[in-house]
Specification:
Elements lengths: L19 H6 L4 E2 L2 E2 L4 E2 L4 E2 L4 E8 L2 E4 L4 E2 L10 E6 L11 H4 L5 H6 L8 E2 L5 E9 L8 E10 L5 E13 L8 E4 L2 E9 L8 E6 L8 E2 L5 E13 L2 E4 L6 E2 L1 E2 L18 E6 L19 E3 L13 E2 L1 E5 L23 H12 L18 H13 L5
Parallel strand pairs: 4-15
Antiparallel strand pairs: 1-2, 3-9, 5-6, 5-7, 5-14, 8-24, 10-17, 10-21, 11-15, 11-16, 11-19, 11-24, 12-13, 12-14, 12-17, 17-18, 20-23, 21-22
Length: 393
């Protein structure tokens, strides 16, 4: 597809296309097999909220709905406000801020001259990435914590139609060329947005989802603080199996962590410069996402280099929020805080049971706030944490 190799503006704030001079100022990302076309500027997106939510799981290469659908209840008055990892940069209304307002003056004249106003984000309008995996390192002291609020942004390439988005987290992110892109996957959440707007020139979408009203749904952060997150974009749910949307333009929007801004912004979390994209902007025309991640050809670097524009290192646009504070121990499932190998053993289960039976808040693994706060879901949460393992406390 010829347009895959050229820079376009899908929507500019003034409704005009990017000038050829401005295009020449925009750098290109480096792919492991060579550079490809640069990203596209987009105008302010449209905020949408899910109609219903459910637990999701990766099972034998499929993305499955494994829990009962629950009506989305909306943001609660006590929605978490402590960022755990921020590659979104929301304002106080939950909308993403833009190039002109987020880069502290760095290359501001260039950015603003090409139509990148508040709310803008990078994207590849002609590529399809229905499944994206990126690394994340959460804020200090937040390893092993739970996130019950999430914001993310995505482009929706097809004509108006059914949209599902699933988000997962993983204990370990592996470098390009590894046997698997991630290890130690946790259950995630799938969001049903119903019919949303798509088509040529349609703005991207973003959301702010608070799950505190559904305490069985949350995102487990990696125990040691460094792991991965995944975003899946689907257009059908057949027997509980999500079908990836393969239309060009369907993909997560891109942004960066604050450490890549010049000077560094005071946002939480850090990120490397590689991301797995199925299929991504380097895929040949007619080769959309197929649900199989090639760890060599579908591992890209979105590092444009400092001085090109800000932020220069991009990742899928997302932020996780939690209640904040330090987890109950350095490694949560190490309940008895043993220091002898293996750190996790049957004694930790006994310790957890004792905490549960005595009503100790340590046993509130899923951080639920609805009475009874200690329930069977805490056992499932503890088992997941235990299976993820941990290093020495």
């Amino acid at each position: 597809m010829k347009s895959r190799m050229s820079l376009l503006v899908t929507a500019a704030i003034a409704g005009t296309a990017m000038s050829s001079a401005a295009m020449a100022q925009t750098s290109r990302p480096v792919h492991k097999n060579g550079p490809k076309a640069g990203p596209v500027q987009t105008a302010m997106g449209t905020k949408v909220l899910p109609l219903r939510v459910a637990k999701a799981r990766k099972v034998n290469g499929q993305f499955r709905v494994v829990g009962e659908w629950q009506a989305y209840r909306g943001n609660m008055a006590d929605a978490p406000t402590t960022p755990i990892f921020d590659c979104f940069e929301a304002d106080t209304a939950g909308a993403p801020t833009g190039f002109c307002t987020s880069c502290n003056g760095f290359n501001q004249q260039t950015q603003c001259s090409i139509g990148a106003g508040p709310g803008s984000r990078w994207s590849y309008a002609t590529s399809n990435t229905a499944w994206s995996i990126n690394d994340m390192t959460v804020g200090p002291g937040l390893g092993g914590s739970l996130a019950s609020r999430v914001e993310f942004g995505w482009g929706w390439g097809p004509v108006s139609g059914q949209c599902f988005v699933a988000v997962f987290t993983d204990e370990t992110y592996n470098p390009c060329g590894s046997a698997t892109p991630v290890d130690g996957g946790f259950d995630g959440v799938v969001f049903d947005f119903g019919i949303i707007t798509g088509g040529a020139g349609a703005p991207y979408h973003y959301t702010d989802i608070d799950l505190t009203a559904t305490p069985d749904l949350f995102f487990q952060m990696p125990a040691d603080g460094s792991g991965a997150y995944e975003v899946i974009l689907a257009n059908a749910n057949n027997g509980g199996v999500l079908t990836l949307d393969t239309t060009p333009g369907t993909r997560p929007m891109l942004w960066g962590c604050g450490t890549d801004e010049q000077p560094a912004d005071a946002r939480v979390g850090t990120q490397q410069d590689t991301q797995y994209d199925d299929a991504g902007p380097n895929a040949p025309a007619g080769s959309p996402a197929d649900g199989v991640m090639n760890t060599t050809t579908e591992c890209l670097s979105y590092n444009f280099g400092a001085g090109a524009f800000c932020p220069f290192r991009l990742g899928s646009m997302i932020i996780f929020y939690g209640e904040g504070g330090t987890p109950p121990s350095t490694c949560y499932p190490n309940c008895d805080q043993s220091t002898q190998v293996p750190f996790l053993n049957v004694l930790d289960f006994n310790c957890f049971l004792n905490a549960f039976s005595s009503g100790n808040t340590y046993a509130n693994c899923d951080h639920s706030t609805t009475p009874p706060t200690l329930n069977v879901l805490d056992f499932n949460c503890f088992l997941n944490a235990f299976s993820s393992g941990c290093s020495a406390p």
